[in-house]
Amino acid sequence: MSQRTKTIIISIVVCIVLAGVGIGLYCAWPAIAGTITGNAYYTYEDVQNAYDDGYTDGIRNEEELTAQIDYYKAEVDKYIVNLQEAQTKIENLEKNLQDAINSGNADKETIAGLQEDLAEAQAELASKQEQIEELQDDIKFYEELLEAYEDSDKLRVTFTMVDNGKERNYDVLVVEPNSYLTAVVTPDRADFEGWSLTKGGELIDNLTTVQVTENMTIYGMCTNTVTFMINDEEYSTQEVSYNKYATDVEVSLAGYTFNGWSLTEDGETITLSTTPIIKDTTFYAQCNQKNISFEPYSWNGLTEFNGDCVWTDGQNVYYSNNLEQYVLNKETSTWEEKIWNGSMTYPVGCEIWTDGQSFYCEESYVLNDKTYYNHYVLNKNTSTWEPTVFYGLDNVSSFAGNSVWTDGQKTYYSYYEEQYVLNKETSTWEEKIWNGFTDFQGASVWTDGQNIYCSESEANQYVLNIETSTWEEKIWIFEEDTFYINKTWTDGQDIFSFKNEIDGIDCYVLEKGTWKFFLNLNLEDAQYNFSPVYIWTDGTNYFYSHLSDQFILKI
User: Which residues of 289-305 are buried (b: 16+ CB within 10 A; e: fewer)?
Assistant: First the structure.
């Protein structure tokens, strides 16, 4: 036998042996053997490098390597039995949990314990399934790799999965030099994106266009799961391509100021757009609880007034209360006298309302013991209240602008038994029939930005089904016994409610349908007069204004 022939045979045997070593080291991980730690994982690249370097230690014959492969196949069979046992355990836990819920006798701790046990069992099952899939992939790969090295005249194309930060062997093809790839099996998994010639490179639309001129590796690219956590709870998830970036997430966290995302629970904040994702990644929200307080504030020009008469036309902020008519100079915090044009020069701020486009105000007069209304619309360009006409209010006893409200689509007037909807095309207030709750006032209607609520009394709490015009009963989760009606207000981000106490004002913040205690607001002598109807904004800051009690909201 010639020296060249001996060299070729030895090289082939070396590669076979290294493949066996790869299987032994890769497959005998802690998840299978249960007692081994710190394993080294050998990939195809390791085998190829050893082959190129002429590695000759620890030679095994092909029969020994085949026996090792058969051994790990048997291990897979054992794991399949374990899977079946885990599935049976899950089914039993699900039955026990359902029985406990249906009985009505189990306490919250028992149910919570069963739910936790079920979640752990399901996680264990998923982990075992993943381990089996990885082991089966490697057995298949090394079997094909052994076959590939038997023919040294052809080229090898190795398919490697880039899977959650690891490179996993998937497939090997043996092809003629300068030939083109034939169809390749596509992994049956939802997170698989496609094949690429480089890790994180452009995906190949059609592998049959790839010409093989040398031994090569093609990478299977999978998406990675990015999880956003807030206060130990999963807030949002995204599927992100390898080496690409997660998109920003809008955070609304009641009672907290959001500072950014970190890779650890208490770490430094990072920029999502410059943090590449190469494996499943968890980001943690870095938040500070708001420090919210009302601090004394001084105005110029008008120093004593009530916030419920402050209003805005979308451009300027005004105070309107009969003879007192002012416009706010924001730069100097000065209320300057305002002259309105038209036949109505003394509007009242709490009587002004809008249909979403124009601003209106009414003034009433009595003739022959019957109340009539003159209606005006604001011409913002000329500061003129021009006469306009509304129909359908003949039976209204006391039309008030603060009883007008909107569900985001239509405009309504609600004052107990007087219920109307505005027909904008005809300027007519038409009678409106509500279901579920028919006797309420618009001043008790409010929104959290998603739903419309009516809080008329402690016993009357409703949420609006817009499609059916039905007020459905609403149950609030509240740390105290009572939800305090008509005491909600906002700082532009959060919704708050409060109650007066001897030592201050207890404040609550709304989070996911739950009113949670927030803090104690100390307004000293103003606390017993504190009412959210006096809170208003100039578009930048929020203020509390009640006669001589003038405060600015600090966060």
Answer: ebebebeebebeebeeb
At 205, the amino acid letter reads: D
User: Has residue 91 been placed in a domain?
Assistant: yes
Nearest to 449 by CA among 494, 401, 509: 494
Structure tokens at 128: 């075992």
Question: Which residue shows structure tokens 């990885």?
Answer: 134
Convert 301-345 into a string of H (helix), E (strand) and C (coil).
Answer: CCCCCCHHHEEECCCCEEEEECCEEEEEECCCCEEEECCCEECCC
Q: Are residues 140 and 282 in the same domain?
A: no
* Together in a domain, 356 and 498: yes
Does residue 197 belong to any structural domain of this protein? no
Tens-place pLDDT, residues 365-424 = 777 777 778 899 999 999 999 999 999 887 777 788 889 999 999 999 999 999 999 999
Cα separation of the two ends of the chain = 88
* Helix (H) or strand (E) segment spanning residue 195: strand 192-196
Specify the number of domains making up the chain: 3
Instruction: Let me know if residue 476 belongs to a domain.
Output: yes
The SS3 call for residue 447 is strand
146 and 247, same domain (yes or no):
no
Distance CA 279, CA 305 (A): 59
- Are 321 and 267 members of one domain? no
Q: For the segment 51-100, what is each residue's pLDDT rounded down to a tens digit?
A: 444 332 333 345 555 666 677 677 777 777 877 888 888 888 888 888 88
CA 246 to CA 117: how far, in whole Å?
Answer: 32
Report whether 340 contacts 325 (CB < 8 A): yes
Which residue type sits at 190?
Answer: A
